[in-house]
Amino acid sequence: MTTLRPFTCDDMFRFNNVNLDPLTETYGLSFYLQYLAHWPEYFQVAESPTGVLMGYIMGKAEGHAENWHGHVTALTVAPEYRRLGLAAKLMSGLEEISEKKHSFFVDLFVRVSNKVAIEMYKQLNYIVYRRVLEYYSGDPDEDAFDMRKALSRDVEMKSIIPLQHPVRPEDIE
Description:
CATH topology: Aminopeptidase
Number of helices: 4
Strand order of the largest sheet: 1-2-3-4-5-7-6
CATH class: Alpha Beta
């Protein structure tokens, strides 16, 4: 049985099997520690019964007024544990936390070329809000989709009205 639990500092020494994937953004230890210190409730792992880390999600709460939202910074599942619904389970947990924090929506960025992830997010009722040109600094030819899902506080669903034109990373609030 898979356990979802809060991420701990020790997990940074155990998640290489999850991060060894070309579609997973890998950050420096200080980045992970910053998220753990500021938004610990948004940093969760999926762990197998034998203690192997199967995947994780890290995010944060940000914005102001009607732009107050939960943000998925990273979501990844180790290749051998994909197609088991773990990503959806981790996303659901982040959405619940965002609801409790009275967020209007949850957003995330995904590579335009990552068709599998885009389809999964669409199945979870996320929409493509806008295209962000040259979002990935390590790959200037790769754009991102900013995908969003409205939460219950956004009664009028204003947060998910798609923009009709692409933006650049520096234009993102």
